[in-house]
Amino acid sequence: MGAFSEVVLAEEKKTQRLVAIKCIPKKALEGKENSIENEIAVLHKIKHPNIVSLEEIFESKSHLYLVMQLVSGGELFDRIIEKGFYTEKDASKLIQQILDAVKYLHDMGIVHRDLKPENLLYYSMDEDSKIMISDFGLSKIEGSGSVMSTACGTPGYVAPEVLAQKPYSKAVDCWSIGVIAYILLCGYPPFYDENDAKLFEQILRAEYEFDSPYWDDISDSAKDFIVHLMEKDSNERFTCEQALQHPWIAGDTALDKNIHESVSAQIKKNFAKSKWKVSQNLTELCKSIRYSLEQIFEMGKVRILRRV
Questions:
Q1: 114 catalytic, yes or no?
Q2: Helix (H) and strand (E) counts for the chain?
Q3: Is the pLDDT at 145 greater than 50, yes or no?
Q4: Among candidates 275, 102, 105, which has minimal Cα distance to 178?
Q5: Are 74 and 58 in contact (CB under 8 A)?
Q6: Dist. CA 98–CA 149, nearest whole Å
Q7: CA nearest to 57, candidates 49, 48, 66
Q8: Same structural domain for residues 144 and 288?
Q9: Is residue 150 over pLDDT 60?
Q10: 39-82: per-residue pLDDT in tens?
């Protein structure tokens, strides 16, 4: 859904509270109504400290407006690059928050299906800010006994069973978390090829390595954690609950050694800036785009559809 919507910063006049408004042209929704209806249905069910919440919905003749909780801390990779000190423990804390949020989704029968670094945002610019999961455009609410088989997601992060077009379930999210954990510890993806067919072959065979020298200083516990999430057989793959109990998350096996130089260098090399939105200073953003909810009412003769 992000591909055809614009997000603007807004201020509620009465409270001066800042929110993010996803503005979706109704023309862009033609033929894609199911996608937006699905995102709204999913977001309405969710209340979790590590998941961006939907607060209100408005519509005009030309647009649909989703009023979202504002997260202003920027993207995951940007923050890692900016840090001067970064360790396995930092990565472990990030993954713990993601696992906790995804376990919550899974317990509600929701599968995200598109977990990737771009969809992980920091809540604020604070040093100890929590991480937030966003973008539910590809999420699926599991019906009783339902099995999903639609091939979707972002190629480098999708599980083998998705590419094989086999029926799949919430285990696909656990695979994606494994891929994210891998990148957080070395700065490059476990699977890569310019040729999509060869990339898919690597993923289908679950062929990945802990290459030297990038993984030489990473603990065996971290590698063991990743291996259990990036398990080809979805029935053998760790669930979020199992992953949360692994010593690398729940214990003290995550190392304190600074790996910032190597990881940030690899992130810069492997994830070109063009692929990641440059996080803007919130104050500058406030000056450049400062709509109020009341103005949106006046401009588009908007009516409230639902108050969450």
A1: yes
A2: 13, 10
A3: no
A4: 102
A5: no
A6: 24
A7: 66
A8: no
A9: no
A10: 677 777 789 999 998 888 888 888 888 888 899 899 999 999 99
CA 280 to mean position of chain CA atoms: 19
One-letter amino acid of 77: F
Based on the domain organization, do 300 and 266 belong to the same domain? Answer: no
What count of other Cβ atoms lies within 10 Å of the Cβ of residue 27? Answer: 9
Give the residue from 278, 258, 290 showing the smallest Cα distance to 118: 278
pLDDT above 50: residue 300: no
Which CATH number do you get for residue 121?
1.10.510.10
Residue 188 φ/ψ, nearest 5 degrees: -135, 160
Establish how many alpha carbons lie within 13 A of residue 127's alpha carbon, considering only the half-sphere containing its beta carbon. Answer: 4
Residue 202 domain boundaries: 76-275
Q: Greater confidence, 9 or 224?
A: 224
Catalytic residue among 78, 90, 114, 173: 114
User: Minimal CA–CA distance to 133: which of 113, 152, 154, 147?
Assistant: 113
